[in-house]
């Protein structure tokens, strides 16, 4: 018995539908890659005196978008709501030093790591307080970014009065003013501040091992992940990543 025309067309239609779903453009609009970031976290994302968005993550995001032949569109939001914004489809990806953790991997997807971060305790220059561990912060007022891995580590340590802020500039301003005893943030941020902004702060102890940082995207969007991973691999092969890393840190931050 000959199969009906409908029975022949259904598998073809299904195959075309699956092919469309697997396309890296399936979750994007037009020729634009919408990128979520803070814009208040130098040297990763911040605005210069001309109001232009600059930083390591900004350059990485632009380079990735170029590799995908897409126009980057930056959407700025506070860190405390940045992951929720991804889930609400306010942007396609987050490029903002998002640490790859098992907890986050339960709800969002990640690219391959593009950088490695290690936390560091920060104190005011000239302070006699010289903490060598998170336990030394017990009984102290410590500034941290709301919703960050750093805040969670302080909570897990216990006994610390945690003062949360929307971003690093506010934390460090209060540290210099003496309103908090210490801050807890990324070591690369500390180095940048000491070498570039000349704030009266210094790095104390670095804590733990280097942790991977990735580009965050919607969980299950394997097509977009594959394209981003390919772009990052190409950036390492052609020297683009190393040039960006040297520009902002004077070293390759793509290694643990």
Task: Label this structure with key terms.
six-stranded mixed beta sheet, 9 helices, 256 residues, five-stranded mixed beta sheet, globular, alpha/beta, disordered N terminus
Structural overview:
- It is a single chain.
- This protein has 256 residues and is of the alpha/beta class.
- It is built from nine helices and 13 strands.
- It has helices at 5-21, 56-67, 82-87, 102-105, 149-157, 168-177, 187-197, 222-237, 240-249; strands at residues 32-37, 46-47, 53-54, 71-76, 93-99, 108-110, 115-117, 119-124, 141-145, 161-165, 182-186, 201-206, 211-218.
- The strands form three sheets. Strands 1, 4, 5, 6, 7 and 13 form a six-stranded mixed beta sheet that branches. A five-stranded mixed beta sheet has the order 10-9-11-8-12, with helices on both faces. A two-stranded antiparallel sheet has the order 2-3.
- Strand 2 and strand 3 (53-54) form a beta hairpin.
- Helix 2 packs across helix 8 and helix 2 packs antiparallel against helix 9 (240-249).
- It is globular and about 55 Å long.
- The termini are far apart.
Give a short summary of the structure.
The protein is an alpha/beta fold and 256 residues long. The protein is built from nine helices and 13 strands.
